[in-house]
Amino acid sequence: xxxxxxxxxxxxxxxxxxxxxxxxxxxxxxxxxxxxxxxxxxxxxxxxxxxxxxxxxxxxxxxxxxxxxxxxxxxxxxxxxxxxxxxxxxxxxxxxxxxxxxxxxxxxxxxxxxxxxxxxxxxxxxxxxxxxxxxxxxxxxxxxxxxxxxxxxxxxxxxxxxxxxxxxxxxxxxxxxxxxxxxxxxxxxxxxxxxxxxxxxx
Length: 202
What we know:
By secondary structure, the protein is an alpha+beta fold. It is about 25% helix and about 25% strand. It is globular and about 50 Å long.
């Protein structure tokens, strides 16, 4: 778990990397502290301001590199999310930067696929669906924002993986869950808060 001070550093660092990458400047490599040396998954999300439309979301789900390295890679990649046009320098002052730091995904073990919803908490759990070469992930904030129930959440995660919405009923499908700690700018370059999906903010 990161403190609000560390979460603030993470968001500010991600914005710095984004701006340097878009402007083709040399990347900074500050010492952010011991917490950033630990291996953790992370996602960087961009929203437009003030409309709060998605502008990019890319990350590294597994703890395969240090948090600092994961932020660098994700922040650079999110500027070229293939679902959108590349981020332009003129947009840097009209986007909000959000960081989600992930726990290690845990495979959900069930006797029958129908049992999956009972093992998922909306507002706490992110999901990863895997089947053969197909894989999809949705962050824990997504079903809250979209007002999905558990079954809809499972179906949309399947579709994110490129699978039919009912693929979670198939026994060859593996589903994992994880939690996320969310830090976000309140406005471009503005104060940073920790967002709790129960509606409370720090």
